[in-house]
Amino acid sequence: MSLDNVDPLSYTLEFTQRIPERMEVVNSIVFQYKWRSFTALGLTDLNIKEKTFVVSCMSPVGVKLFELIGDKDSVKANFVLKELLQRGDLPKAVGEDIRRIYFDNKPLQDSVIKKERYRIIYTENKDTGVTKYIFAELPGRLIEKRYYEAGRNIWSVYYYDYRLVKEKLYPAYCLLKNYKYGYKLFTRIKEIR
After folding, report:
1. 62 secondary structure, DSSP code
2. Per-residue pLDDT tens for 128-164?
């Protein structure tokens, strides 16, 4: 839909008011790296306001893979299947991806605004890089969040098919692309608790 007559400063207001402060969701997860893929089922308890999370993940046959507790700065592993630790710091990677997908999903008031016909882009300069929030549709929805360092896209999150439950918006389907490490993470909400 055309956003020609939309005020960019008030455009995101309804969206930000409908982001739940707390959410507990069951997700299906697909992780793709090069020609390999990994499927799992995750239970995620998020406190968006406090920026904390608890996540537990199991294989399709019910084997517990990991359980993590984290906040905006750190992640603690309560349990991680030892085979998963052979490929790097899994708790750190999962924690970073949860933060990228679910936290800081609204632009700051002092963002640089670029208005296009069908989308509005809010750009924030941070110490280490630049974050772009891309909104579209009426009413406004966050459809993409991108992070750049030195002009290079490090990661992007795409949001699809929001669900409205008890007047709160949940991104039913998300795709995270990590360009730095070359992987994709797909999440789909199966249940909102």
Report:
1. S
2. 899 999 999 988 999 999 999 999 999 999 999 999 9
Closest by alpha carbon to 42, among 18, 24, 17?
24
Q: Which CATH number fits domain 8-192: 2.10.50.10, 3.40.50.80, 2.50.20.10, 3.30.300.90?
A: 2.50.20.10
Taking residue 25's Cβ as centre, other Cβ atoms within 10 Å add up to 22
Q: What are the pLDDT digits (tens) for 75-93?
A: 999 998 888 877 778 888 8
H/E element, 144: strand 141-149
C-alpha of 191 from chain center:
17
Report whether 187 contacts 38 (CB < 8 A): no
Q: Check whether the bond before 139 is cis (ω within 30° of 0).
A: yes
pTM metric for this prediction: 0.92
Cα–Cα distance for residue pair 174/34, rounded to 1 Å = 19
Beta strands at 112-115 and 22-33: parallel, antiparallel or unpaired: unpaired
Are 154 and 147 contacting, i.e. CB atoms less than 8 angstroms apart?
A: yes
In sequence order, what are the residues at sequence separation of 6 or more whose Cβ sits closer than 8 angstroms to the Cβ of residue 126?
none
